[in-house]
Specification:
The protein is of the alpha+beta class and 557 residues long. Among the domains are: 78 residues, no CATH class; 48 residues. The strands form 4 sheets. Strands 3, 4, 5, 6, 7, 8 and 9 form a 7-stranded antiparallel β-sheet that branches. It has a 3-stranded antiparallel β-sheet with strand order 11-10-15. Strands 12-13-14 form a 3-stranded antiparallel β-sheet, with no helix packed on it. A hairpin with a 3-residue loop joins strand 8 and strand 9. Helix 14 packs across helix 15. 30% of the residues are buried. The model has no long low-confidence stretch (mean pLDDT 87). It comes from Homalodisca liturata. InterPro entries: Helical_CED_Drosha (IPR058938), RNase_III_dom (IPR000999), RNase_III_sf (IPR036389). One of its GO terms (molecular function) is ribonuclease III activity. Keywords: RNA-binding.
Length: 557
């Protein structure tokens, strides 16, 4: 009851997508990337070395990815340790902005390096491994590496697990893919078979400990169950039981999804707001009375009691019988790395779709990060790359048991805050003495700049076009051009809704909110064009969006 599973198109508390049928036909949030077409299938019995580009994926920092018991394959009297994934792309990857993701309150950077490709694999083997790990074990049923609507084509990227051993001279040997699959097949056996049950129950304690040490941290699976896979944290046997058919119990320490714990409980949220409000009130009192302090303490105790209720606790302990569970030989380090693959894939597919936008505006950015920033709505979080609840469930069920957490304030550092303290903090800051890149990862700063760019470009054109108009008349024209409703039309002309990154929630499902976000995105794009190419480039793109298909008016402008 406390293990959560993945269903296609569903989150833990309802449908993933509540968009209209028309809205579902476009947008990155619906896994539709501009410019992606059918890819003819690779030869399954070859490594396709003549048409695939190879990249090694690394993660920095390595916190929570280096575990005490990594997945190790023994072959030819050597140990091959899992170190991550290789990626094979159908097209050469340009130098793109770094892919960053916040997980466990730590900002990770996913980096890929082009390397000479290994030759000891076939595409069929990579497809078998992908299907087994990502679809059967982790149940990432909403993750699709093919172009939208392309059910028969090749995935945009192929992934290969890297089991390596060190060689003299700083070299590495990557284990052949057929040996990896052989290891997975050999490892797939009952956790405790019926035939060996009596022997397992009768084992001396030291043998039992040796047996369980090998299992701890491994992913086990029960095909057909929901969820089918989980991490073994402990294996307990009941030696005092009179029954000889009681299988050992798998103990799993999990985390209840936030929507179903105290964090998502409306009653708890209301009590928390009341507590924070009253605490703030007391902090600003010159001399709080004893009665006020007692009331604050009572509110704090009430919150504590709600947090410790069994049905609302975040941390849960799950025990299930080991009967019919099979070992996989995969430890949680493989899962940790695998759960970053969807994030990198969505980053690469997004930047490939931006090639289409650059063709539309007839300008290629020298700093592509500015374009990425202009299209990133404040609601967007690059956390999972697929259905977020599916990724959370798979990480909880199969990922590392006790991750190291960073500072949780990383999520709120750049969010809007109100109040006198915030105002004092802002007004007391000194400006930088030299040009510095901001660490704010959404488009509001560029929107602020782009608003001025649009106004300036419009003002200059109107000033020269209407030499006989007074200031009031010019202002009327300018107001009509720069108002949000009109900028949303220009954003639609450029098709910005196909490239925008924003949260797949109910906030932007309605046309009014979406149009407002598109207008802001257009202003941010103007700001990015100004920074990257100067005012002439911003002026040219603005003019062509304003009079697309109307050459006479464009020339007049």
């Amino acid at each position: 009851q406390e293990l959560w599973f993945n269903d296609s198109g569903e989150m833990n508390d309802g449908p993933l997508c509540r968009c209209s049928a028309r809205a579902r036909r476009s947008g990155i949030r619906h896994n539709i990337y501009a410019g992606e077409n059918h890819l003819s299938s690779c030869d399954p019995n070859s490594n396709n070395g003549d048409k695939l580009y190879h990249y090694r994926i690394t993660i920095s920092p390595p916190t929570n990815f280096l575990v005490k018991t990594p997945t190790i394959i023994e072959y030819d009297a050597h140990e091959y340790i899992f170190e991550g994934f290789s990626m094979f792309s159908h097209k050469k990857l340009d130098a793109l902005p770094l892919c960053k993701v916040i997980r466990f309150n730590i900002e990770y950077t996913i980096v890929y390096f082009e390397e000479k490709a290994p030759v000891n694999f076939t595409i069929r083997e990579l497809d078998y491994f992908y299907k087994y790990l990502f679809q059967e074990l982790l149940e990432l049923v909403d993750l699709d590496l093919r172009a939208h609507g392309d059910s028969s084509g090749c995935p945009q990227y192929h992934f290969m697990p890297r089991f390596v051993r060190e060689l003299p001279g700083n070299g590495k040997e990557v284990l052949s893919m057929n040996e990896v699959l052989k290891y997975l097949i050999d490892s797939s056996c009952p956790l405790v078979s019926k035939g060996s049950l009596s022997d397992v129950l009768a084992m001396p304690q030291h043998e039992w400990q040796r047996f369980t040490e090998h299992i701890k941290g491994m992913i086990v699976t029960y095909p057909g169950k929901k969820p089918c896979s989980l991490r073994v944290d402990q294996l307990d046997r009941d030696q005092d039981s009179t029954s000889q058919s009681s299988f050992p119990e798998i103990v799993h320490f999990g985390i209840r999804p936030p929507q179903l714990s105290y964090a998502g409980n409306p009653e708890y949220q209301k009590a928390w707001r009341e507590y924070v409000k009253f605490r703030h009130l007391l902090a600003n009192m010159p001399k709080p009375s004893f009665e006020d302090k007692r009331r604050l303490e009572a509110k704090e105790i009430r919150l504590q009691n709600m947090r410790t209720k069994n049905e609302l606790k975040r941390n849960v302990t799950v025990t299930v019988s080991s009967e019919n569970f099979h070992k996989t030989g995969i430890m949680c380090d493989v899962v940790q790395h695998a759960m970053l693959v969807p994030v990198l894939v969505s980053h690469l597919r997004f930047h490939r779709s931006l090639d289409v936008l650059e063709e539309k505006i007839k300008y290629k950015f020298s700093n592509r990060y500015l374009l990425q920033l202009a299209l990133t709505h404040p609601s967007y979080r690059e956390n999972f790359g697929t259905n977020p609840d599916h990724a959370r469930n798979s990480l909880t069920n199969c990922g590392i048991r006790q991750p190291v957490y960073g500072d949780r304030r990383i999520h709120y550092m750049n969010t809007r805050k109100r109040g006198i303290n915030t105002l004092i903090n802002i007004m007391s800051r000194f400006g930088k003495t030299e040009e510095t890149e901001s660490n704010i990862t959404h488009n509001e700063r560029l929107e602020f700049l782009g608003d001025a760019v649009v106004e300036f470009v419009t003002s200059v054109h109107l000033f020269h076009m209407f030499p006989d108009l007074e200031e009031g008349g010019l202002a009327t024209y300018r107001a009509a051009i720069v108002q949000n409703q009109h900028l949303a039309v220009l954003a639609k002309t450029l098709g910005l809704e196909e490239f925008m990154l924003y949260a797949h929630g109910s906030d932007l499902c309605h046309d009014l909110e979406l149009r407002h976000a598109m207008a802001n995105c257009f202003e941010a794009l103007m700001g990015a064009l100004f920074l990257d190419g100067g005012i002439q480039v911003a002026d040219k793109v603005f003019g062509e969006a304003l009079f697309k298909g109307l050459d006479d008016l464009l020339n007049e402008w």
